[in-house]
Each structure stands twice: as structure tokens, then as C-alpha cells.
Amino acid sequence: MWFWSPRKRRFSSSDIRDQILMDEIERKIDELKARPGLPRHIAIIMDGNGRWAKSRNLPRLAGHRKGRESVRTVVRTCAKLGIGALSLYTFSLENWRRPKAEVSGLMRFLREVLHSEYLELKENNIRLRAMGRLEMLPGKTLDALNETIEKLSVNDGMMLNLCLSYSGRAEIADAARRLAEDASGGGIAPSEIDEEMFGRYLYAPDLPDPDLLIRTSGEQRISNFLLWQLAYAEIVVMDVLWPDFREEHLFGAIMEYLERDRRFGALKNT
Are 46 and 89 in contact, with CB atoms under 8 Å apart? Predict the structure, then answer.
């Protein structure tokens, strides 16, 4: 075993490997920051927690707890890269149909994460917001969420957007309902309604649309996530399960994004 021990301090081979890895990560961050065209907004479907736990004969909640390390890694790394916004598909509207014990455990876990991760989010100058049918969240969870959002509102760095009790179709339906309510008063003529106006009625109209969508676990679908906003996003599907997602996977997805030719339906200039 490697060690160095002046003043009786020991450094194992594991310590050295960890330091080398951290140095490599920092070099890769600097390399990517020097590249033009980094995504302004990254969205992630964090899939595979249940399968990760099942493969180890663990309860499903163990997979979500392990996935917390991946969330911390991605949030920290995106902030260092200067990404403007990061949206995480945290809990879908459909997830309410899961067993009651699992849902209750996830809500308790969310409260725990909000309390325990606050200081790191603050130190990394990260803002927090959430979108979805948040009124469906348990009172204690919603209180913890609002409290954390308020405390981090003084920051001016990356926006971390948690999609909670969220459904892309529900968001569009809610936007249409609010638009119809405003139009029924006579203030909006049907001829005035266009994509730009409709977009202002979505949950977070101030956020730019995601440039890059990452989905883990190899599933090739968007699962009712940001249906309006993903119209022109580049999609990268990765075989890794979410609890195993680390910096190298994020770097790989961003590199693939940078290598793509984004034309938005137009022809490339020649």
C-alpha cells in the first residue's frame, strides 16, 4: 500500500487515486469551459434507481438514496461548467400511482435532501425552483421546498429546477386553462394566440428551453417530460443506471452534444 507519513499522516493508494481523479475532472471542466456552444439548459430524466436496487436485492428506496450521490455530482459539475439551468425529472405526476409506502418514503427523502444539501447549494451559488402540480405535495414537503427556495433566492448562479408532481401534458393543459380564463374576459382575441403567447403560460416561462436532454438506463422515450420545451433539444440516451452516473457520463453527453449540427429545421449555410 502506498503511503507518505511525515507527521504520521498516511495517504493510501485509494487517496492517491481519488486525488488523480479529481485533478482529471477539474482539467476536463476547464477544457469544456473553453469550448464555445455549451448548452445553456440541461434536462435529465434520472432513470434506473429501481433497477439498480433490484439488481442488488435492495428495496427500491435504496436506489433513490444512492442516486442522491449522482444528483450532487451533476449539480456541482454543471455549476462549475457555467451551465445556466439544470432541470431534473424528480417525481412525475404518474409516480403518485406507486405504492403508498414508496411514495411516502420518497417524500420524506426529499425533505431530508432539501435540508441536508442546502449548505452545498448555497456555497455553489445555486438557485432553486420547482415546477409541477406542487399543491399535491404533502404539507411538510412543500414547506421544506418553499423554505429552501426562499433561502437560496439571494444566489445568482445556476438555476436548479426540480420537476415535482410534474407531467408535460398536465403542464400544457394547465397553460391552456389559464390562457382560456384570461381570454374569456375579452382581453385576448383568438387571433392573437401564438406559440410565444402560449409559452408565457407554462410553469417556468423565464427558463430557456433545454438544449440537451440526457436520459439514463437506456430507455429511449421522454416519458411525458417537458413536451413543449424539448421541441429542438438534442437527446442523449445512456445505458448507465442513474445511481452509477458520474462526471465522465456528463462529460460524454456534453461532448456528443457539441459534436452535433443543430439547424432547427433550416439548412446549414454553405
Answer: yes
Say what the pLDDT of residue 4 is.
Answer: 33
Strand order in the sheet with 212-215: 127-131, 159-166, 85-92, 41-45, 212-215, 234-237
DSSP letter, residue 66: H
Q: CA 243 to CA 47: how far, in whole Å?
A: 9
Catalytic machinery residues: 47, 95
What CA dihedral angle connects 46, 48, 49 and 53, to 10 degrees?
-170
Q: Where are the domains of the chain?
A: 38-167+209-257
The DSSP string of 229-255 is TTTT-EEEE-SS-GGG--HHHHHHHHH
pLDDT in tens, 67-86: 999 999 999 999 999 999 99
* pLDDT at residue 96 greater than cutoff 70: yes
Give the phi and the psi of residue 166 in degrees, each rounded to 5.
Answer: -110, 145
**CA 97, CA 256: separation in Å to the nearest integer?**
35
C-alpha 168: how far from chain center = 15
H or E element at residue 200? none
Q: Which fold has domain 38-167+209-257?
A: Undecaprenyl pyrophosphate synthetase (3.40.1180)
Closest CA to 212 of 85, 81, 124: 85
Report the predicted TM-score, pTM, of the whole model to 2 decimal places: 0.90
Distance CA 180, CA 199 (A): 14
